[in-house]
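Regression test attached.
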Amino acid sequence: MYTDGGEGSEQPNRAAEERRGTAERFRNTDLPLAKLWTYYYGLGGGIDEMSLDAYLHEALDIPASQVALIATAITELTEDDLP
Amino acid sequence: MTAHDSSAGSFDAAPPEVPQSASNIELRLQEMVLDSRDVVGFLTDLAVVSSSRLSSPDNRIHTGVTVIRRKRAEAVASSDAAAHALDELQNGFGDGPCLTALRAGKTVLVSDLATERRWAPYLKVAREHGVSSILAVPLDLAGEAEAVLNLYSGRSNGFSEDDVSTVEAFASQAASSVRLVLRITQLSEARSDLASAMQSRTIIDMAVGAIMAENRCSRDTAFQILTRASNTRNIKLRDVAASVIRSISGEQQIVTYFDE
C-alpha cells in the first residue's frame, strides 16, 4: 500500500513501483487467484480474472486505479487471516 | 468418540461392526461425504471410524489427522482428545513419525517406542503419555493437500502386519473421499465468496456514485477518495462505503438480491 506521502509530484514512479509492489505482495501470500479476483470484484474491480493473473505476473499493465483496488483486496484478505 | 466408548464387556459380546469388507467401507465413506458439513467434520468421522475398526477391548487405538495448511502442520481432527494432544505435541516438536510419513509419503510404523532411536525428544514425551506404538499412514491427495492418519496404541507391537495393510487400504479409499470433500467445500466457499462480493460491490458502487455527485468528480477520483479513507482509518472499503451511504440516506441495510 502506498504511504500517504506527497500529493502527486512523483506520480509515474510511484505508480510503477506500486504496480510491481502489489504483484510481489500477492506472490508472498498463498491467496488463491480466484479468491483474490472475487474479492477485488466485490470492491468494484473492473478487470477479469485472466487479466488479473497476467497483471500479477507482470505481463500486463492495468490502470493505477485498478492496482489500488487489488492492493486493497490483498490487504483486506490477509487481515482476515489473522486470528 | 461414540461407538468405542461403550464398555469393554458389551464390546466383547457384540462387536459393533464385524469385519467390514472393502465395499462396506466404501459405502460408509460415501455416506460420510454426503453427511459432512466441512472438511474437519469429515476428517473427524474418518478418525473415529479408523479407531473403531482397529480397536479391540485390550488395545484401544487413538487416531488423529494432521494436515499441512499454509505450510504448517495442524492437528485438524481426531477420534478423541488423547490423539489430538499427541498430534499437537508432535507438531510442536516439528518432527516425529507422523510428520516423517507425511513428508516422505510413506507409511511409518514404530512398533515399540522404547527401542526406537529416531525422533527421541517427541517419543520420550509420547511415552509419558502412555503411548507404546505408533502407525502413521499418509493420505495421497494428488497434490491438492497433504494429510496423514496418525494411530496411537498403548501397547508395544500394537499394530499387526494385518492392521498395517488394513489401514493402508482404508487410507487409500479415504483419500479419494477427502478429495471429494475438498472439492465440494471449495465450490461452496467460492459460491459464498461470490455472493458476498455481489453484496459489497453494490454498496461500494452506490457510495462511489454518491461521491461523484457530491464532488462532481470522476469515478476513479471517487474510488481514490474511498480507498484513502479506508487506508487512513484502517476500515474495510465496504464499511467505509456503507457509512457514506448511511450519512446520506440513513439506510442501514443495503441488500442485493442474489439467487443461484
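Expected vs. actual: identical. Residues 1-10 of chain A have pLDDT under 50 and may be disordered.
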